[in-house]
Every structure is written in C-alpha cells, then in structure tokens.
C-alpha cells in the first residue's frame, strides 16, 4: 500500500501542496496528468529522491518519508532505464541484492529466476550499448524487482518504445505480477497503456490527485507553448549508492 497524506514540495516556482491519495496493497495503479503537473515529482518523493516540505508518506502502514532511499523498500524504473553503461546486465541486476547483503547463491538464484521470466537470459553478459530499447527496459525492470521491493514506481518506462515492443512489455509486467504481486504506481501519458495495465486509475490536475474510472479526455501531452514547471531528477553514474533503489 502507498499512502500520501497532505504532502507538499517546492522547487523554485513549482509547488505541490496538500496532495493525498492511497494505492491499495498489491494494486497496479496508473497516474496520468498534463506534462509539468508534478507526476514525476510525486514518484521521486515516494522513492526519496525529492524531499517533501510537509505531510507524510506511508508504505504498508509504515512511515517512510524520513528514511533514506535505500531503506524504503521502493524500486524505481525511470523513463530511460538509468542503466550504467560500463556494467553488464548481470552486474546491473545483481547490484541491489549485493547492496542488501544477499549471498552469491541467493543473488544468482533470484537473477536466473527473473531473467528466465522476463526473457533476458541470453542478454546477461551484454552492456547497454549492445541492447535494444526494449531489452534495456527489460533489464531495468528486472533490476527493479530483484530485491523483492514492496513498491515499484515506474515513470513512463515504455514511452520510447514502439507499439509491438510496448505490448511485449505489458505481457512481461502481467507475468511478473502473476508470479510475485507488488504494489505499483506507474506514470504514463498513454491512454492505451493506462487501459491495459491500470487496476486503479488516478489523474493529477491542478495539484489534486483524483481517482477516476475513465481515461481523462484532457490532453496530457505538451502543447507547443507549454514549458514544464519542474525538472525531474536524472540519475548518473556518480549518484550515491543509496540511489539504486533498483540498481
């Protein structure tokens, strides 16, 4: 379960105030809204990558907003996957388990299990430069789930993929959730993606998150004169080790 209660955050001129909503346990929730409305900021606040100035965040009824990112039990799949270019897929997936002190045997068993389910067993020795866009996102998703997180946050993870590859990724997520249910909050601008994946659908509008049963008709893509009001966090290879909630 993810519960946000009156959270507030500020970054320059951009601000969110009194944002509250709850995602039920083991639910796959989708969050939509206009570009620049703060969807990524909400994900980053849950993960611990963006500080909040007020309110509380609970995961499974436990307050986590004062914890370091690595202590929250939250995995993060950013839009570009954020794979380390000098590491093989095997090394990327193993990292979150090594950070948490898993044994080599436990790490290899979990990696082999997930790699088989996601269909990347033959890609484990490749570095990102030798992976397609869909393959990179499979590795990023596998890495995110490796340490058995309580919650997974996904920020437009399939936006750069073509439609057939997106459909493959939808099936991958469905298979993973059938095997190991997890609570997810997935940001997207795609109504097709929302219809396909959402068990609960939320819409962020003017700083308020509303639960809805219908895909909003308001466009969520940028208009020609629109300038986003906030700058999402972009991870780099020099980020501290607690950044890898999923690395």
Question: Main attributes?
Answer:
single chain, 247 residues, alpha/beta, Rossmann fold, 4-stranded antiparallel sheet, 6 helices, 24% strand
Concise overview:
With 247 residues, the chain is an alpha/beta fold. The protein has helices at residues 39-47, 89-99, 104-118, 133-145, 163-179, 191-197, and strands at 2-11, 14-23, 28-33, 54-59, 62-63, 74-77, 151-155, 183-187, 200-205, 208-212.
Protein described:
The chain has helices spanning 39-47, 89-99, 104-118, 133-145, 163-179, 191-197; strands at residues 2-11, 14-23, 28-33, 54-59, 62-63, 74-77, 151-155, 183-187, 200-205, 208-212. The protein has six helices and ten strands, in the order βββαβββαααβαβαββ. Strands 6-7-8-3-9-10 form a six-stranded mixed beta sheet, with helices on both faces. Strands 2-1-4-5 form a four-stranded antiparallel beta sheet, with helices on one face. A hairpin with a 2-residue loop joins β9 and β10 (208-212). With 247 residues, the chain is α/β, with parallel strands linked by helices. The chain has one domain: P-loop containing nucleotide triphosphate hydrolases (Rossmann fold). α2 (89-99) runs parallel beside α4 (133-145) and α3 (104-118) packs across α4 (133-145). The chain is globular, with a radius of gyration of 17 Å. It starts with a strand and ends in a 35-residue tail after the last strand.
């Amino acid at each position: 379960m993810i519960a946000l209660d009156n959270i507030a955050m500020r970054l320059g001129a951009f601000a969110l105030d009194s944002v509250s909503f709850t995602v039920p346990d083991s639910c796959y929730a989708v969050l939509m809204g206009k570009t620049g409305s703060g969807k990524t900021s909400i994900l980053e606040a849950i993960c611990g990558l963006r500080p909040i100035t007020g309110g509380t965040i609970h995961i499974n009824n436990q307050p986590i907003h004062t914890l370091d990112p690595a202590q929250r039990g939250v995995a993060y799949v950013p839009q570009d996957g954020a794979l380390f270019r000098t590491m093989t897929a095997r090394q990327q997936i193993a990292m979150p388990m090594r950070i948490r002190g898993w044994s080599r045997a436990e790490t290899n068993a979990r990696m082999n299990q997930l790699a088989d389910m996601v269909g990347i067993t033959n890609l484990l020795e490749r570095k990102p430069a030798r992976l397609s866009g869909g393959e990179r996102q499979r590795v990023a998703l596998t890495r995110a789930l490796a340490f058995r997180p309580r919650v997974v946050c996904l920020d437009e993870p399939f936006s750069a993929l073509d439609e057939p590859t997106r459909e493959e990724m939808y099936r991958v997520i469905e298979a993973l959730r059938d095997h190991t249910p997890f609570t997810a909050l997935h940001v997207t601008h795609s109504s097709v993606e929302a219809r396909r994946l959402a068990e609960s659908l939320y819409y962020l509008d003017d700083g308020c998150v509303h639960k809805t049963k219908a895909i909003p008709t308001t466009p969520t893509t940028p208009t020609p004169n629109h300038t986003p009001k906030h700058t999402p966090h972009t991870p780099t290879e020099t980020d501290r080790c607690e950044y890898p909630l999923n690395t």
